[in-house]
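Subject: Interface between my chains keeps coming out wrong

I've been trying for a while to get a sensible model of this assembly. When I model each chain on its own everything looks fine, but I need the whole thing in one frame so I can look at the contacts. Pasting all components below, labels as-is. Any help appreciated, I'm running out of ideas.
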Amino acid sequence: MTELHVAYRFDTLVVGAANRTAVTAARAVAESPGSVYNPLFIYSRPGLGKTHLLVSIGHAVRAVNPSASVAYLTLDEFVEDFHGAVASGVVDGFRQRYATQDVLLLDDVQLLGRRLEMHEELLRTIDALQAAGKQIVLTSDRPPSQIESLDERLLRRVAGGLVIDISRPDFETQVAILRRRADDNKAPFATEVLEAVATLGIESVRELLGALNRLIAFQAVSDAPLDPQQARVLIGGPGAALPTTTPVATFGTAAPVSTLEAALGDKPAVVADHDEFGDFLSELANTLAAQAEPWRTRVGEAILRWEGEGFRTGVLGRLLDQENPADPDAVLVQYEADAERLLEMHHEVAELAPDMVGSPTLNDPGNMAAAEAYLQRVRESAEPPPAPSAAWRLEELVESTVNRMALRAVHGIVEAPAVRYNPLVVIGGAGSGKTHLLHALGGALAGAGLQRVACLPAHEFTQELIESIDRDAVPAWRNRYRRCGALLLDDVHAIAGRERTQEELFLLFNIFIESGRQLAFTSAVPLAELSGVEPRLLTRLEGGLVVELPAPDRDLRAQVVERLLAGRGLGDDAELKAYLASRPADSVRSAQGLVQRVLLAADARRVPATAALAREVLEGAARPARRAAPNRPPIVSGGIRSREKMVWQWPDVADCVIEEWR
Amino acid sequence: MSLVNFAAREITCKIVYYGPGRSGKTTNLQYIFGRVPEPRRGRMVSLATHGDRTLFFDFLPLDLGSISGFQTRFQLYTVPGQSYYNATRRLVLQGADGVVFVADSQARRFEDNLESLQNLHENLLGQGVDVRQLPVVFQYNKQDLPRELVLEQGALDDALNFRAVPSFGADALHGSGVFETLKGVSELVLRRLSAGGVAAG
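Reply #2:
Try treating it as a single job with all components included. I did that and got this:
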C-alpha cells in the first residue's frame, strides 16, 4: 500500500464550482466513513484532482481517528498485490488485509477494463467492506458505465453508492489555483499574468501547474516582471497545438506575431505559437476595465478572488447590483477584512478541531456573527473535559484480598494503557472506593504523561450532552471527548434509559478501542443486572475486565483504621485499632465513619481516644465493656445506621454471631 | 439588443458580419471558431447551400469568461450576402450591437461592396437605428491576392469608409486580420455599453 502524499489534503485543495460537490461528498465520507456514500466513486479527466481528493479523505479520516486503518493504492498495485498473494498461496491473507481496512482508497480503477480477473476480487472486497460498515472510495478517469467490460454486479455496487464527477476548473478556480501555487513557491506574479494563463484553455490542473512552473523558471532568470503577453507566448496554450497556416500578417493594423522574442533576448525560452484568442481576451479586458467604473472593476476582481478561495460573495454581488452605492470601497474593505478574519478562523479551527473546519459558516463574510459564534463553540470544545481529582491518589489505596484484583488491574493499566484491560469496569456498592479507584487511575495515567485524561460521573456526561444539544454544539462536544487520551466514567449505571447518551458513548467506545485508548468505568450495579442499557454497549463493557469491589474484610478495615489513627498519632494503641477493625462495616466509607465518630467524640470531650471511649461511643455507656467484643449493639446517636448495625437489635444472639462471621 | 446584467454580472453582445456574397464573412467565423478553445465556444451553426453559400445565417456563440468581474459572451452572426435574402439580413441585423462590414478587396467586386453597404444602411434605417451611433468597422478581405487584382486599403477606405471608422486589411482564409477586426468592433461595442447605450439588466 502507498503512503498518503503529505501535500494532498483538503486544506491544500482549491475548491471551485467544478469540484465543489465532489469535495463536499468527500468531506462527508471522511467525517463518517462507511455511513454516508459507500462506495464513493469519483471520476474526471486526468489531472483534475481525483488523487488529491482521494488522499485528502485518507488524511481527514486519520485526523478524526488517528488509529483508523486507511489503505491507499492504485488499481495496479491492488492487482500486483493479488497476483503476489496467489503466487505465494496466501490469498486469504490478501482478502483479510483489505477486508479489515477502515477505509480503502483505490485509484485509477478504469484499468479494471484490462483486468477482468480482478472484477470478482474487487467485488468480494467491496462486499466485505460494506458488510463491516467500512468505507471504500474509488476513482477513475471515466464513469463506471464507460469502463469497458465492467462486471454488471460491480456496476450495480458502485451505482448503489454515489458517483460524482469533477469537471474542468472554471476561470476563477484556475486563477485561485495558480495564485495559491505561486504563493507556495514564493513566486508572486501580477494578477493579470495569472488571469492570462487561466484564459489559455488549459484542460487539466496538472498542466496548469506545469505551465506555472515554466513561468516561475522563466521569471527566475529574468530581471523584469513577466507581463501577460509574455506569459501567453511562453506557455502557448491550446492555440499552439492547433494546425495553422497563418502567414505573418502585414496588412492594416495587424499586430506583429510576437514581441516576446525581442523581450527574451538571448535567453533560452519556449516560444509558442501566437495565441490570438488570448490576445483578444486580454485587450478586451483592458478595454472593459478602462470603461467600467473603477469600483465595479475592483469589486468584480474581489469576487473572483474570494469565490476562488471558497467564500460567499453575496455582499459584493449585492453591491454590484446597486446603481450608485454610497461608499462601495468601504464595503469592499470591510468585506476583505472579514474574509481575512475568516481565514484566521479557519486556521484556528483547523488546529483545534480539524473535523469541524469544513463548516460553511466559516465561508460567509456576510454573517460574521455566526462565524464568531461557531469559533467560540469550537474553542469550548477544545477545552479539556473534567480531569481526575488530585485528592484521590493511587498510593493512598489500601490493598487487601478483596480489592487486590482491582488494584492490580489498575496498576497494569498505568504501566501499559489500553493493552490488557480495556475497558476496565469496576463494580461496587456505595462507599466501596470505586470512585477513588477511578480517579486514582486517571491521576496515575496523567502523571505517566497521558494527555487529556477525562474523568467524570456519567450523569455529568449526560448533562454536558444535553447542554450541547441545547446550544446546537454536539459535534464540538463530541470532538472534545474524541481527542482525549483516556475516558473514565464513574457510575456508568446512570446512563440506563439515556438513549442518546448511550449512542454517543457507543461511538466514543468504538473510537477509543480502535485507536488504542483506555476506557474505564465504575458501576454500582452489576452489568448482568443493569437494565435500560443497549445490549451492544453492555456486551462491549463486558468484553473488557470486570472486577468487583466487595464489602471490606477485617484485614482491609484494619488497614483503613490504622492509617486514620496514625494520622492522629494513635498508631500505637493496639487495643483501639483492634476494636475498631472488629466493628462491622459494609464499606470502606462506613469503616472510616466509625473512626471519625470516635475521634470527634474524643475531641469534644478533650480526652484521648481509647478503646473504652470507642466502646462507649459506638456501643453506648449502659453496656459493660468487653475487650475486643464486637457483639454489642451500637448506640445510634443520630447517624445513619447501616444494615449491619441494625442486626444488633435482633433478639437472637445466634443471628448476631452468624452476621459477624459473615 | 446587448445586455449588461449587473445582478448576474453578465455582458452579452451581438456582432453581425455584413457584406456582399462570397466576401468571406463565414470564413471569418470559421477561423475564429478554430482558434477559440473548445470550452469557450458553442456549436457553430451554419446553414449553407451545396455550393457553400450561406443560406440563412451563421451563428457562433463565444464565452469569453469573466472579464473585469463580468461574465462576457459574444454572439457572432453572419448574414447571407446574396441580394435576394434581404429579409433574412434584416432579421439577423435586429438588435445588433456592432457590425463588421466585410468587403471583398477585388477590384471587380467593388460595385457589390457598394451595393451591400447601401443595403446595410437601408436596413438599419428601416429598424430605426442611427448608423452613426452603431459601432461599425470595415474589413477589407482577400488582401493576399495579387496586387493587380485588389484595391489598396486606402482606396477602399476612400470609397467605402467615409465616416473614417476603424478598418482592417485581412486574409480571412489564413486568419490574418480576423482577430484584429473582432477586437476593433468589440472595443467599440464595449465603449458604447459603458457609455450607457445599452439595456441594463
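Reply #3:
Confirming on my end. Residues 3-200 of chain B form a domain with the Rossmann fold fold (CATH 3.40.50.300).
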